[in-house]
Design brief:
The protein is α/β, with parallel strands linked by helices and about 190 residues long. It has a single domain (about 1-190), classed as 3-Layer(aba) Sandwich (Rossmann fold). About 30% of the residues lie in helices and about 25% in strands. The strands form three sheets. The protein has a seven-stranded mixed sheet with strand order 3-2-1-6-9-11-12. It has a three-stranded mixed sheet with strand order 8-7-10, covered by helices on one side. The protein has a two-stranded antiparallel ribbon with strand order 4-5. The longest helix is centred in the first third of the chain and has 22 residues, at about 25-45. The two termini are about 25 Å apart. Keywords: ATP-binding, Ligase, Magnesium, Metal-binding, Nucleotide-binding. Belongs to the 5-formyltetrahydrofolate cyclo-ligase family. Its EC number is 6.3.3.2. It catalyses: (6S)-5-formyl-5,6,7,8-tetrahydrofolate + ATP = (6R)-5,10-methenyltetrahydrofolate + ADP + phosphate.
């Protein structure tokens, strides 16, 4: 069963990567504007002053306009930094310091706060490849967020960010897969 889910996930991730690469610049720009609007709504609705987010890569739903707004609004944003042990450290965003990670995604640079820094966040915004209608998140296969979310006893609300066509009826699941509380797409916010 687990092998089947792994195989299905691998195929689905490849399909999603291909679809994401086919989005045009105008479409990506419009999506980024809509996503930023919905993410701002989410932060305001939760009264969040300290959040976690991520630096979006070239073909991901863009968090960049939202991160700029959060910085201007005085919201503390924690950005992830990968560790060799599969966990995530966190740094406070300064809006500028990043480098390309060897796996191809942008990663923040700054003073490492350790995994426990996430415990003080009011809202977690996480990347995903796909989300299903029960709130199960399919990531990119490295397990960073599943381990992080699974280790939190009293976690704040968690919302994933995907394109509209990546919110689907069901995603392949394994035992370690974590649910999220909602999803933000260019067309809106869905709560589970």
């Amino acid at each position: 069963m687990a092998t089947d889910a792994k195989t299905e996930k691998r195929a689905l991730r490849a399909e999603i990567r291909q679809r994401r690469r086919s989005h045009g610049e105008l479409q990506l720009s419009e999506h980024a504007e809509h996503l930023s609007h919905h993410l701002r709504e989410l932060v305001v609705a939760h009264g969040a002053t300290r959040i976690s987010c991520y630096l979006s890569g070239e073909f991901e739903p863009s968090t960049r306009p939202f991160l700029s707004w959060a910085s201007d609004a005085g919201i503390t944003v924690l950005l992830p930094v990968t560790r060799e042990d599969g966990l995530l450290d966190w740094v406070v965003s300064d809006g500028e310091s990043e480098h390309p990670h060897e796996l191809g995604f942008p990663e923040a640079i700054g003073e490492l706060l350790g995994p426990i820094a996430l415990g003080d966040a009011d809202l977690l915004i996480v990347p995903a490849a796909s989300i299903d209608l029960e709130g199960y998140r399919m990531g990119w296969g490295r397990g960073y967020y599943d381990r992080t979310l699974g280790s939190m006893a009293d976690r704040p609300p968690v919302f994933a960010v995907v394109f509209d066509d990546e919110l689907v009826g069901a995603v392949p699941r394994e035992v370690h897969d974590e649910r999220v509380d909602g999803v933000v797409t260019p067309s809106g916010i869905t709560r589970f």
